[in-house]
Amino acid sequence: MNKLDYIVVGLGIAGIAFCEQLFAHGKRFVVVDSGKGNATSIAAGTINPIVLKRFTGVWNVEHFLPSAKEFFKKIEKRTGIPFFWDAHFYRILHSVEEQNDWIMASDQKKLAPYLTPEILKNENPNLNVPYGFGKVNQGIRVNTTLLLDAYRSHLRENGTLFESQFEYNKLCSSKSGNSYQHFLAEKIVFAEGVGALKNPYFNSGMLLPRKGEYVTFKSPELQLDKIVKGPYFIIPEGNDLYKIGATLDRNDQTPQPTKKARLELEQALKKMIQCSYQVVGQSFGFRPTVRDRRPLLGRLNGLHQAFVFNGLGTRGILGASSLAQQLFNLIEEGTPLPKEIDIQRFTS
Ligand SMILES: Cc1cc2nc3c(=O)[nH]c(=O)nc-3n(C[C@H](O)[C@H](O)[C@H](O)COP(=O)(O)OP(=O)(O)OC[C@H]3O[C@@H](n4cnc5c(N)ncnc54)[C@H](O)[C@@H]3O)c2cc1C
User: Fold this and answer.
1) Which end of the chain, N or C, is more open, meaning fewer C-beta atoms within 10 Å of its C-beta?
2) Which residues, listed in sequence order, are joined to residue 234 by a DSSP beta bridge?
3) What average pLDDT does the segment 47-55 reach?
4) What are phi and psi of 316, to 5 degrees?
């Protein structure tokens, strides 16, 4: 038996963020991950401090953003792979009323650090921007594929990655610890994203998978080097390639890209650009969302020293590091979680 402090199930952004806590505190652990990926591997990794529909601040952004920046810097240093950079987002304004709303929002003390008050003129003839742009500052773009690859390699080198599907019926949880295969750990943390719907110890009614799809297109004419947001984000990927998305579908649970999403995204694209393009790909994933739009963290009933890190929703890349710290402090120090993120709000 390999004696450990922790078993972590799942290596998306939640698993990575929790591992960073374990490294920082010198804990012995193993991560069990199927390598199939899901939300983190598909996300475009835009970290945007503003809700661009309503021009309001994202929940907890003042805590999440600095924590996310530190977290990514630490991982870059640890892995030696650069995978994130500062990014601005350009919101296409659709009317004089929206221009006014933008200016009013940028005047609010809480939002001023993130919103440039001037309305910016569009200089790109291939973009359709009749009322100008509002510019969002302090954003980040994370290449999640690079991050995941770098982190997996790092764990492999440390001998802390067990690359296989976690089989719940092989977990033996008792007062003497949690044993799984040849590992015996005091604690276990489940961070499987929507994979938790197959976890028999998890009340699956708490988690609502929300499908999101991107279309990738090529357009040598477009010559766009910034991230713009109209009905959807257009995200430059280099080599004349761009992503548009992501959709949010509450009902579709099918494990493949859909024609419906492609049509919806192409319709939006045609409103946003006025040059030719060619669709070259489509991708999808499922966001682990919760009814009240708050994460699901805390103790999992029915097992010994078992915990959940899930429900990261539509902005998990932003919130994961700060939330991981809160979960770690609960487990190791007994620091209570804020009620709004504690899984017990659904179970008690
Ligand atoms: C289309 C799309 C776009 C998005 N865009 C953004 C964005 O721009 N910015 C942002 O902040 N957020 C974005 N999000 C949300 C963000 O991606 C999620 O909140 C976050 O990635 C969730 O991370 P997670 O680690 O909880 O889950 P996941 O990333 O799904 O990771 C779970 C991991 O657990 C593994 N796993 C599951 N079950 C098992 C098992 N039984 N055994 C072994 N391994 C298992 C899976 O294979 C996976 O590797 C987006 C999401 C989607 C779907």
Assistant:
1) C
2) 228, 244
3) 91
4) -65, -30
Helix (H) or strand (E) run with residue 333 in it: helix 316-333
Structure tokens at 112: 């001023």
Q: Which DSSP string corresponds to 186-207?
A: EEEEE--GGGGGG-TTS-GGGE
**What confidence tier does 348 reach under pLDDT thresholds 50, 70, 90?**
low
Question: Which residue, chain included where needed, has tokens 């709004």?
Answer: 340
The pTM for the full model equals 0.97
Q: How far is 195 from 310, CA to CA, in rounded Å?
A: 10
Closest C-alpha residue for ligand 1 atom 1: 212
Domains and CATH numbers, the chain: 2-46+145-207+291-347 (3.50.50.60)
Q: Give DSSP secondary structure letters for 129-149.
A: -TT-EEEEEEEEEE-HHHHHH
Q: How far apart are CA 262 and CA 264, in angstroms?
A: 5
| Distance (Å) from CA 176 to ligand 1 centroid | 31
Task: Point out the ligand 1 atom lying closest to the alpha carbon of residue 148.
Answer: 49
